[in-house]
């Protein structure tokens, strides 16, 4: 595969949008569509697919489904808030964690306290 082609290809209202895995901070469900938060843009971009499709096709490398409404990039976690079950990502973007994912995140990052 040619390395110049970005691996994540998603439909937008304008056509196809291409992303590298490392430019995605978080993907957030919004109805049947998603909002993609990236390093380069201040505002998220709407793409025309749901999180189940994204999880099936793109949750590899560092993209991780942490909640029914969120996929996060593990490289951009800046803080794990145990009591509120949230992660704070680059750019002060927050995402909820399901209970099972909080347990997995704690194991991944070797967080031992309650």
Name the descriptors.
114 residues; alpha+beta; OB fold (Dihydrolipoamide Acetyltransferase, E2P); five-stranded antiparallel β-sheet; three-stranded antiparallel β-sheet
Summarize this, please?
With 114 residues, the protein is an alpha+beta fold.
Structural notes for this entry:
The radius of gyration is 14 Å and the shape is globular. It is 16% helix and 42% strand. It has 2 helices and 10 strands; from the N terminus they run E-E-E-E-E-H-E-E-E-E-E-H. The strands form 3 sheets. A 5-stranded antiparallel sheet has the order 5-4-3-7-6, with helices on one face. Strands 8-9-10 form a 3-stranded antiparallel sheet, with no helix packed on it.
Spatially, the strands of the biggest sheet line up as 5-4-3-7-6
- How far do the termini sit from each other? 45 Å
Rounded average pLDDT: 92
User: Any idea what the radius of gyration is?
Assistant: 14 Å
By CATH, the superfamily comes out as LytTr DNA-binding domain
What would you call the structural class?
A: alpha+beta
Helix content percent band: 10-25%
Looking at the structure, the CATH topology is: OB fold (Dihydrolipoamide Acetyltransferase, E2P)
Return the domain count: 1
* CATH class placement: Mainly Beta
Please give the count of helices.
2
Label the CATH architecture.
Answer: Beta Barrel
Tell me about the biggest sheet?
5 strands, antiparallel
Catalogue the unreliable spans. Answer: none
Q: What is the chain-wise order of helices and strands?
A: EEEEEHEEEEEH
The count of strands amounts to 10
- What's the shape? globular
């Amino acid at each position: 595969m040619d390395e110049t082609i970005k691996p994540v290809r998603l439909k937008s209202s304008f056509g196809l949008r291409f992303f590298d895995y490392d430019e995605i901070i978080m993907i957030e469900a919004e109805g049947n569509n998603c909002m993609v938060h990236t390093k380069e843009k201040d505002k998220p971009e709407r793409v025309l697919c749901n999180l189940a499709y994204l999880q099936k096709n793109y949750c590899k490398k560092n993209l991780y489904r942490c909640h029914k409404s969120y996929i996060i990039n593990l490289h951009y976690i800046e803080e794990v808030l145990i009591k509120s079950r949230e992660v704070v990502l680059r750019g002060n973007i927050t995402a909820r964690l399901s209970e099972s994912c909080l347990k997995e995140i704690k194991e991944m990052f070797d967080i031992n306290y309650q």
